[in-house]
Design goal:
By secondary structure, this protein is an alpha/beta fold. Helices cover 37% and strands 20% of the residues. Strands 1-2-3-4-5-6-7-8 form an eight-stranded parallel beta barrel, surrounded by six helices. The N and C termini lie close together (7 Å).
């Protein structure tokens, strides 16, 4: 069965406490923290996500799945390590060179945190292959990062399949997380392609019953 990482991006202001408790009761596997700096992507959620992540850490024992969509990766890693996340994922496209990618991987691991690398829709999946033996997860974006509620890009399914084939062939133990436009229609296709962690935000937060939708996405 796949795991569900619920994005808290579209949680309404003033309803954070009740929503976080409901999500925990509904058995989401992770809280997905979308960190944007207004530079790498248009939207800026940096401070809000830092506050929400700190708050979730105080009230919940569920793991935090931090997705950094930022230019200054090192500073963001330092800021979010403070909330003791389960995983910190940074973008391959935010790195100047391969050496920097390896430095970030090592730095995150040294701080007792799992590490993920994310790729935008236009990035060839092969670019991440050499880093897979050293990371815990690869996050495939199935929309352009930075905005919630976008439509799933169906040609990303081929990218997920390629990634899954490589991981299987190389006998690696790397999770495949998929983020963007995940709902009851797209989830089965993504799972079939090889993903085992699905990030869903709008589909869950806008649903009448969190537990029902999470169970249906997992099934």
């Amino acid at each position: 069965m796949v795991e569900i990482s619920t994005s808290i991006l579209s949680v309404k202001k003033g309803e954070e406490t009740s929503t976080f408790f409901e999500l925990e009761t509904a058995k989401t596997d992770y809280f997905h923290i979308d960190v944007m700096d207004g530079k790498f992507v248009e939207k800026n959620t940096y401070q809000k996500m830092l506050e929400n992540a700190s708050y979730i850490k105080r009230i919940s024992s569920l793991p935090l799945d931090v997705h950094l969509m930022v230019e200054d990766v090192k500073t963001a890693i330092d800021d979010f390590l403070a909330v003791e996340p389960n995983t910190i994922t940074f973008h391959l496209e935010a790195c100047k060179n391969k050496e920097e990618v390896y430095d970030f991987i090592e730095y995150i691991k040294k701080n007792n945190c799992k590490v993920g690398i994310s790729v935008k829709p236009n990035t060839n999946i092969e670019e991440v292959f050499e880093f897979l033996p050293y990371i815990h997860m690869c996050l495939v974006m199935t929309v352009e990062p930075g905005k919630g509620g976008q439509t799933f890009l169906t040609d990303m399914l081929e990218k997920i399949k390629k990634l899954k084939e490589y991981i299987t062939t190389q006998k690696l133990d790397t999770d495949i997380e998929v983020d963007g436009g995940i709902n009851l229609k797209t989830a089965p296709e993504v799972k079939k392609a090889g993903a085992n962690i699905l990030v869903a935000g709008t589909a869950i937060i806008m649903a009448n019953n969190f537990k029902t939708i999470i169970n249906e996405l997992k099934a």
